Structure prediction request, 666 residues.
Amino acid sequence: MTIKELARELEMSATTVSRVLTGQEKKYRISDKTAQRVREMANQLDFAPNQIARNLRLQKTNTIGLVIPNISNPFFANLARTVEEELRNRGKMVLLCDSKDDTRIEEESVQLLLSRKVDGLLVAPVGEKWVHLQKKVTVPMVLLDRYFENEDLPFVTTDNFFGAYEATSFLIEKGHRNIACIQGLTGTTPNEHRVKGYQSAMQNHGLGQRLRITGSDYSMSNGYESTKELIARADTPTALFALNNQIAVGCMKALKEYDFSIPDKISLIAFDDQPYFELLSPSLTAIKQPMEGIGKVAVASLFELMDNKKVAPQMLKPMLIERDSVAPIPQKT
Amino acid sequence: MTIKELARELEMSATTVSRVLTGQEKKYRISDKTAQRVREMANQLDFAPNQIARNLRLQKTNTIGLVIPNISNPFFANLARTVEEELRNRGKMVLLCDSKDDTRIEEESVQLLLSRKVDGLLVAPVGEKWVHLQKKVTVPMVLLDRYFENEDLPFVTTDNFFGAYEATSFLIEKGHRNIACIQGLTGTTPNEHRVKGYQSAMQNHGLGQRLRITGSDYSMSNGYESTKELIARADTPTALFALNNQIAVGCMKALKEYDFSIPDKISLIAFDDQPYFELLSPSLTAIKQPMEGIGKVAVASLFELMDNKKVAPQMLKPMLIERDSVAPIPQKT
DNA sequence: TAGTTTTGCACAAACGATTGTGCAATTTAC
DNA sequence: GTAAATTGCACAATCGTTTGTGCAAAACTA
Prediction:
């Protein structure tokens, strides 16, 4: 059913129907009687205008592209949820792309989204730089979670350095000196900043010589394998700092398997909290990210941008949630 | 940059450019030389045709609408991931809608998707019936996870009855007689079928008098509150059957809080497995749903449907993963 | 009553692609 | 060398909306 057919039914022009349905009846002096008739008929046949034609004519799609690395990671799932809700409340729909932490897929996705004429982009990019795309992206874009240094693309992220610094300091204050950090995907900004936070905290406490950084991606198996290696060697750390929720789960799995009881034999702290962390045994101390905040602020920023306003990057503070996976140890030094 | 501008640049007609870029050069006898020139220029300016215009002309959007109740539930997050990947591999993009288990939002979302002329719909509907929408949905649609009885809409789901029957039987075989079932959102088919599976197993084992069904939605807090109530009364169950992953987590939280050790004082089994279940203490016995299977089969079915083929509903079998949260109890009777 | 203003609506051109068809120019046939 | 066939491309209509503008009819004005 098109607007023309509806117009024929009503024995009037498509113009008039369109004007009524877009609420422009006053502006174009459509009589109340006519407007009524149009609305009734539209309701009765429950007609909805073809959005594709509308988009083409209006040069606007009311669609936002959301590109994230892995929707099955609860962090991103929650982010997606908030973003979807915020956008729906503002009359936009979201085209979802999962890049699987693969720059090729990511680039392809952005291209596709652009050719579909999205009104804006929200991207949690994989790499540290965006060699291929930065020039091509012609629509308002806000980066989520991850971002690029030295390029003035607006972004909204957790203060990863701060969170990691806090976590590490917390361990040090509890008396830990031999602390290993199991990182995620190197080259992604959250990872680099968390690593830097860890390093800074260690150095500022005179432990610059004892840095131990291992691991390679954000997966559970990375946490598992890295932990196994760490506990197999002499000089086993007294505490582990896992740089995301999935890594932390992998750590626990390995520690459980090798009977390294937490926190008696080893302490564990995670970046990125999850609801079930309090149910693990022991419950897991973690840095909680302001997930909802990131989503909301990102959408708000994107809208500012679409209104041709300038927006400043935003770093939201995370929070340490203390539970039972970190124990104090007697100071040796 | 439009195809016309590109054509002007090349000093030829838009027709020719379009035909080359859609690979129809042979069919329309475009010379190789011309085709080459077009491709080079298109590459150089990296031109991509406006998909909106294309969609309008071709009456096809290469877009699928995905409507799910809650993307932050890991079950649906995983489903979304599989679906997105399968669709991307077939050249489609996904418009994501989170209905928040609200029929109003769901209906609105479907309407919006239809007016956007999606080529197909994948929906995990909230209710048991679809009073408002069933007539209006004019595009191929496959239901996910949840479905409607007595209407021949194709669906792909876990065999919920079977899974619940297995879980309950498992408990009974371990000697449990007093088994409470904590359900999710009543009125959703998975819930009803799981409840029926529980009931059937109980009845077939002569425990028809001992049915105990409580709970009201798929949330963690429902599991928490329901469990608290159950253990407060006399005649506390010896086993709990939680009808989804979030409810199970809530159960554990309550049991932990009230020092009801699992599985010594009470056993727990969950419908819907999650990776971290093996790390909980005790590790959680659960019915594992074939999530990836559901996503893949659903997409395949949708494509069959779009090819005007008939498709049969599919019920995929879940599997019981035995861990440590269920203990045998001595038979009293 | 004639002139002016207001009211109510329709025509037609765009948005940017795709495609049936037509028509020169070139090649082939004989 | 002429007729027929083939090659190579462009014209114009179309998809379903929106919107600047135009033009009767109705309502005022004096």
Chain B touches chain A through 49 residues (CB under 8 Å). Chain B is about 40% helix and 15% strand.
